[in-house]
Design brief:
The structure is a homodimer of 82-residue chains.
Chain A: E1 2-8, H1 16-29, E2 36-43, E3 48-55, H2 58-67, E4 74-77, E5 80-81
Antiparallel strand pairs in A: 1-3, 1-4, 2-3
């Protein structure tokens, strides 16, 4: 299992409620790909959302995001963390 | 106090030890700007480091990173998180 940071662009104006709803949608089906979405952070001004997850591959992370209607612009493995 | 996500580019090949040392350097002086660096994640392949912090302004976050020798490429407020 590897940690991943993914980035969504074009989310200008996202609200706290919308972030929560998107995260819950991911949580609801993440187990089907062996992924777990740990946290997410939103900057409504630049329209950027960052998601921290753990899973078997970046493709697995992206498949969950695609199925819940918000594909990531980028998915990066982050093998090191503090 | 606001949460911030900052991004460092050009860190190709960064090691777990180097990430830890950079984070420790920030922690050592962060209080002087009222900032706290919570976590950091590194992708040595793309050379990207992500730092999650809390502080009074993005300029305060950047001042700590500059003083410890690793200015961020971008600092974004992330007022919403889950």
């Amino acid at each position: 299992m590897t940690k991943f940071m993914d980035i969504h662009q074009g989310m200008e104006g996202i609200t706290a409620e919308e972030l929560k709803a998107a995260h819950q949608a991911d949580l609801a089906i993440e187990a089907e790909e062996g992924v777990h979405f740990e946290r997410a952070w939103a900057d409504p001004e630049s329209g950027t959302v960052y998601c921290l997850s753990e899973g078997p591959s970046k493709e697995a992370v992206q498949r969950i995001h695609e199925r819940t209607g918000h594909p990531a612009s980028e998915v990066h493995p982050v093998p090191y963390s503090v």
